[in-house]
Amino acid sequence: MNKTTLARTLACLFRSGLLSCGLVLAAGLLAFALAAENDTLEVFLETKALETNPLETNALETKAPEAEVFKAQSLGLPAKETDTPYVAFGQWLPALLTQFNQLPEVQAQLTRQQQAELAIQAADRAVYNPELGLNYQNADTDSYSLGLSQTLDWGDKRGVATKRAELEAQILFADIGLERNQMLAERLLALAEQAQSRKALTFVEQQLRFTKAQLGIAKQRLAAGDLSNVELQLMQLELATNTADYALAEQVALVADGKVIELLGDNNLAFSEFIKEIHVFVAQAKQAPAPELSTYKSTLPALASAYQQVLLARVNAMQVKADTSADPTISLGAEKEGTDNKLGVGVSIPLQVRNNYSELQAVADKGIAIAEQGYLARERVLTAKQKHVLYALPRLLERYQDWRELVQVSGAKAAKSLSQQWQAGDVSTSEYLQSRRQLAASYLVGLNLETAIYQSWLTWMGESGQLMPFLNGTAEQISQAPSHMPNAAARTVNQ
User: Fold this and answer.
1) Residue 325 banded pLDDT, cuts 50, 70, 90
2) Residue closest to 188 by CA, chosen among 458, 449, 446
3) What is the annotated signal peptide range for this record (predicted)?
4) What long-range pairs does 207-211 form, CB within 8 A, spacing at least 24?
5) 252 CB contacts (<8 Å, ≥6 apart)?
6) In degrees rounded to 5, what are phi and psi of residue 350?
7) Fewer CB within 10 Å of terminal CB in the chain, N or C?
8) What one-character-per-residue DSSP string does 231-284 give?
C-alpha cells in the first residue's frame, strides 16, 4: 500500500465527516504501511489479533524470530534455524541393528544355520556299520559259528553326502542372508515412511496454525474495512480444509507408526534419513567400468543361491551314481563243528543285471541343465532390475535436488513476497490462498520424491542382497563425512 492510497483514504474519511473515526483508522493505516515497509507487518497484525481476541488465538503466541521460522515452515520452507545436523549411518545404525538382531525371526535364522552345520557333521560319517553274526546248530555233532561282515563304500557315498550337505548349508546361508537383507530393507523402508509421514503431519499442523493466525489477521482487516466478508469466508473455508488435511495426515502417521511397531516392536527408534548414502551408491555404480559392472552383476549376493543350486544339481548326479554303485561286502567267519575248527573268508558283490539305473542317471543329468537355466533366468531378472534402478534412481535424485533448491531459494522468496502483498492488499485473498496451496503442494511433492527414492533403493538392495554388505562397508567411511548437511528435507525425525 503506497502513500497515494493512504492520502486518498484519509481524504474520503474527512469528506464523509467521520473525522474522529478517520483519525483512528488513519493511525491504523499508517502503522499498517510502516509495518509493510519494515517487513514486520505480519508480526504486528498477529500481535493486534492476539490483543483483540485472546481466546481464539491463544495457541499462536510467538516471538518475532519464532514467527519467521513459523512462516517459513508453514509453507514447507524450513528456515535455517530449523535445519538439523546430518547424522551418519555409523551413529544410529548400530543401535538399530542390535534391535533387529534381537527379533525372533532373526534368532530363528541363527538356529537354522546351526542346524545346517550339524547336518554337515552328520553327513560326514561312515555309511555302513560292520555286522556281527552268531550261529549255533544242535545236531549229532554240535556246531558253532561266528561271522563278521563289512560293506565297503566303493561308490564314495560318504564323500558325496558330505558335499551335498555342505552345498545345502551354503544354499541355506545364502537364502538366510537374502531373507535378512529383505527384512532389514522392509524395516528401513518402514522407518523412512514413518519419517515422511511425521514430516507431512508437522507440515500440515503448521499449515493449520498459520491459517488460524492468518484468519485472525483477516478479521482485523475486515474490521478496518480492508477486506470483504467474502474473502473472510474464503479464509474460514481454508481453515476447514487445513483441519481435514491434518486429520488425514495424522491417520497416515498413525498407520506408519503401527507398521514400525509391528516390524520392530517400537516406534521411537533412532533413525536419520540417508539420501546422501544413496547418492554415494549411485555415484559408485555409475562410475564402475563396463567389465567391472558385468562382473559385479554376476557376483550379486542374490545369485549365490542360484549358483549353489547348479552345483547341487551336479552333486545330485554324483549321488545317483554313488547310490546305485555296486558296493562289495567282505565277511570273515569262524566255525567249530565237533573237533574241527574252520575259518572262512567271503566276498559278495551285487550284480546290476536286471537294472543298471541308467534312467535315474539321465534324470539327474537333466536336473543340471534345469538348474543352469534357472540361474541364467535369475541373473537376467536381476540384471534387468539393476538397469532399471540405475536408470531411475539418478533421475529421481536429480528431481529431488531441483525440488530442494527451488523450495529453499525461490520458494522462500515467493512465500515472503506473497504474504506481504496479501497483507498490503495488492493480492486478493483467493489468489493468495491458491498460491499458498501451490507452495504447499510443492513441499508434499518433495516428500513423495523422498519416499520414491527410499522405496526404489531399499527394494533393490533387499532383493539383490547388497544392503547389509553396503551398510557394513560404508558406515565407517560415511561417518567421516562433514557433520552438517544443508538439506531441510534430510533431517533426524525420530529421536
Assistant:
1) confident
2) 458
3) 1-26
4) 207/74, 207/242, 207/245, 207/246, 207/440, 208/239, 208/242, 208/243, 208/245, 208/246, 209/59, 209/60, 209/70, 209/74, 210/70, 210/71, 210/74, 210/75, 211/235, 211/238, 211/239, 211/242
5) 197, 200, 201
6) -65, 140
7) C
8) HHHHHHHHHHHHHHHHHHHHHHHHHHHHHHHHHHS-S---EE--HHHHHHHHHH
